[in-house]
Amino acid sequence: MNIILDHQIQKTDEDCSTHNVMCTFSTCKGKRYTRLRGRELKLIKFHSKSSEVQKSLASAELERRNYIDSQVLGISFDITLHAIDRLSTIYLHRFINEFDGERGISSWCNSLVKEALTQHQDLLGLNEFIIRHEGINFTFRASDYADNSLVLTTIN
To answer: Which of 14, 116, 153, 154 could share a disulfide with 131, CB 3.0–4.6 Å?
Structure first.
């Protein structure tokens, strides 16, 4: 198996392969792009100190994973594992009924959150709020770590 460092790549195309490419970006140095977490890939993709090749590789890996963009109306959001667990225990029957064979439960949750936030834009400036959407209560709070970012903490 040949491993190549990302800075050894001169140019990437849209469908470049991320397999066996080692990241040299400071916070992810020494890890393969295929092993980076989604959050790390998004950091590389949007960081001003990332090279164009690193940004392309991060984008390609996110695309390979069919990564869902967790952003709506200029606000990014994170979904806690607790919220996914709550959704899967309380609303699993709904997910099974709506299952299309392509999206998993976290992707389904992501799209529900986007719909809920889009329909309740007036709440986006608050530090904490609950949105009732399609019979599900989504509890949000402002992120402690990033501006213009929300965290879905739980679902009821």
So the answer is: 116
- CA–CA distance from 116 to each of 61, 92, 142, 144, 149 (Å)? 28, 19, 16, 21, 15
Q: Can you give the pTM of this predicted structure?
A: 0.60
CA-closest candidate to residue 68, choices 115, 99, 107, 39: 107
User: How far apart are alpha carbons 108 and 90 in whole angstroms?
Assistant: 14
Q: Do the Cβ atoms of 153 and 87 come closer than 8 Å? A: no
Q: What is the pLDDT of residue 61?
A: 85
**pLDDT, mean of each 10-residue run, the chain (156 residues):** 89 77 95 90 92 92 72 87 95 90 83 94 95 97 88 96
User: Letter for the amino acid at 34?
Assistant: T
Question: Which burial class, exposed, middle or buried, applies to 103 when counting CB atoms under 10 A from its CB (0-12, 13-18, 19+)?
Answer: middle
- Hey, what are 94's tokens? 């709904």
